[in-house]
Amino acid sequence: MKKIWITASLLAFFFCGQAWADLTWKTLKELKLEREPLGVATSADGKSVFILLKGEIAVYSVPGNNIEKKIPVEKEFDSITYSPGLHALVLTGRGSKSLKILKLQDIHQVDVSGLPFTGPENAPVTVAVFSDYQCPYCARLEPILKELQEKFPEEVRVVHKTYPLQSHRFALKAAQTALAAREQGKFREIHEKLHENHRVLNDEKIAEIARGLGLDMEKLNRDRNSPSVQSIISRDFNEGRRIGIRGIPTVLINGRIAERYGLAELEAMVEEELKGKHE
Asked: How many C-beta neighbours within 10 Å does residue 216 have?
């Protein structure tokens, strides 16, 4: 048996001048497995533990204290790591000299109740869009969303969620105005006009657009500051922060965040949802 000797002088070299605290521990969770684990990896947020078993990955939810999903994989893989940058699992098989990267996609629960939308209310695919009326990229997305619904007229519902940025001075007032205009049946019209004029929005322009649509301005001003409008804007903003929105627009298709907003990419995601297949 090999022994390792640590002399006092070596200890002094490593530890001299360092303050040490005592250590304690407690069991956070304990899980009994049916089979021997081959490897374990943890997500960046610490909420999921990926347990590699022979032929599958058991996804353990730390908050839920349960196995929430099982991902089938080839039996040749016997090692697993997590890549935070890719949000992916990397599998290797020493015996077979194999490597596989599994891209993970979170499915977020977003509240779309009470929000303006276009398309069938009970459509199988919900496209939730976080946007800002002063954002040029949000304005460019609008015709793409229209084309998407033209291709899937019975299958896609587009729900509009507000996410006004603080750096856009008039975005919040525009969002309040759009939601207030819905009370007069003019959401779609003012939504389009606000996006069309995103470069020149200010208080006067917002009022001009509203008057041009024949809105009752007294009612509009009253509804704009109503508790229901403020509640929707606050809810959408807090949801955006919870799911980790990094920029706008952000598009979620049945809870999955789209990585690209071209028509072809969005169509592909819709077709995956209709087929019930995520790859």
From this structure: 13
Task: Extract the tokens encoding 274.
Answer: 């209709």
Rounded to two decimals, the pTM is: 0.79
Residue 161 in contact with residue 224, Cβ under 8 Å?
Answer: no
67-77 confidence digits (pLDDT tens): 999 999 999 99
CA-to-CA separations, 267 to 8, 151, 161, 177, 259, in angstroms, rounded: 68, 8, 20, 31, 13
Q: Which residue in 160, 153, 157, 159 sits closest to 125, CA to CA?
A: 157
Rounded to whole angstroms, the Cα distance separating 108 from 115 reads 17
CB 134 within 8 A of CB 127: no
Number of H helices, E strands in the chain: 8, 12
- Amino acid type, 75: K
Q: Is the pLDDT of residue 55 over 80?
A: yes
3-state secondary structure of 36: coil
Residue keyed to tokens 């917002």: 206
CB–CB of 221/197 below 8 Å? no
Q: Tell me: cis bond preceding 249? Omega within 30 of 0 counts.
A: yes
Please report, in angstroms and rounded to a whole number, the separation of the first and last CA atoms in the chain.
Answer: 50
DSSP 8: H
